[in-house]
């Protein structure tokens, strides 16, 4: 099966066996796991994952790929294919439909839409056991970045408030057909347990993070002035003269809580 990759779908098909084997080994699927693959493409990961887990649900947007994928999987295990844009799939409802406590999600994500897919998955983190994604290396670097790093930003904070982010290994362009113009990386995301999650208003946290990183060179006092004043920033134990990239994820939570406390008291 050698389908012609479609530029409009951002398709780069993984074909090099040693990297396929490393990804499958990292996921370590077991019989009975409820595995969901995003964008199976030609089935390079689908078939070994299906062989290990016995059943698999794949979400594929490209209708041209589905018949051959279904045919190849028939002798391997029980493959269910959802023809849809992954951003429209309710993973919480899907877990219930599949009779699973939590899903194990994997995929070689289209690079042009990877961040929206990540945020969509995080919205359903309570229904997800773990996620293993192939992404542009630059994106994985941003996901795992620590405060003070040049690439630390909104993506880093929002993902780290919801998951443990573990970069695993890099994959060169030659492992794909056609080769992308960038290096890729495989990353593991493990949603935090309920007791590890913050208890601030998620929308408030998101608003603070978004405003703080909108113009990285601005101090927090300037970047957050539409949401809170310098005294409120100090009340959260944060220096109003600091810049967003120096704050740990927990600092943004404290800022959000101060905003809500002040609004409730007014």
Structural notes for this entry:
- With 266 residues, the protein is of the alpha/beta class.
- It has two domains: 7-196, Vaccinia Virus protein VP39 (Rossmann fold), CATH 3.40.50; 202-265, Orthogonal Bundle (Helicase, Ruva Protein, domain 3), CATH 1.10.8.100.
- Helix content is 37%, strand content 20%.
- The protein is built from eleven helices and nine strands.
- The chain has helices at 17-27, 46-53, 66-73, 91-97, 114-123, 137-144, 154-160, 202-214, 220-223, 230-235, 249-265, and strands at 13-14, 35-38, 55-60, 78-83, 103-108, 128-136, 163-171, 176-177, 184-191.
- A seven-stranded mixed sheet has the order 4-3-2-5-6-9-7, with helices on both faces. A two-stranded antiparallel sheet has the order 1-8.
- Strand 5 (103-108), helix 5 (114-123) and strand 6 form a beta-alpha-beta unit.
- Helix 8 crosses helix 11 (249-265).
- The longest helix is centred in the C-terminal third of the chain and has 17 residues, at 249-265.
- The termini are far apart.
- 38% of the residues are buried.
- Residues 5-11 have low confidence and may be disordered.
């Amino acid at each position: 099966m050698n389908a012609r990759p479609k530029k409009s779908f951002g398709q780069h098909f993984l074909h090099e066996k040693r990297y396929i084997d490393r990804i499958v080994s990292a996921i370590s699927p077991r019989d009975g796991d409820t595995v969901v693959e995003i964008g199976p493409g030609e089935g390079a990961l689908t078939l070994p994952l299906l062989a290990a887990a016995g059943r698999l649900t794949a979400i594929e947007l490209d209708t041209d790929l589905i018949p051959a994928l279904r045919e190849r999987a028939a002798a391997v295990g029980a493959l269910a294919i959802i023809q849809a844009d992954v951003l429209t799939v309710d993973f919480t409802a899907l877990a219930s439909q599949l009779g699973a406590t939590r899903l194990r999600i994997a995929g070689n994500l289209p690079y042009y839409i990877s961040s929206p897919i990540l945020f969509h998955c995080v919205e359903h983190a309570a229904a997800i056991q773990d996620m293993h994604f192939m992404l542009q290396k630059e994106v994985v670097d941003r996901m795992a970045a620590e405060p003070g790093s040049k690439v630390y930003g909104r993506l880093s904070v929002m993902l780290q408030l919801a998951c443990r982010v573990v970069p695993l290994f890099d994959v060169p362009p030659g492992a794909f057909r056609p080769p992308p113009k960038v290096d890729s990386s495989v990353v593991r995301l493990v949603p935090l347990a309920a007791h590890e999650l913050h208890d601030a208003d998620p929308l408030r946290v998101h608003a603070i993070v978004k405003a703080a990183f909108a113009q990285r060179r601005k101090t927090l006092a300037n970047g957050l002035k539409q949401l809170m004043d310098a005294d409120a920033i100090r009340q959260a134990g944060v220096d109003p003269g600091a810049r967003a990239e120096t704050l740990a994820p927990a600092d943004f939570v404290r800022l959000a809580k101060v905003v809500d406390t002040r609004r409730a008291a007014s």
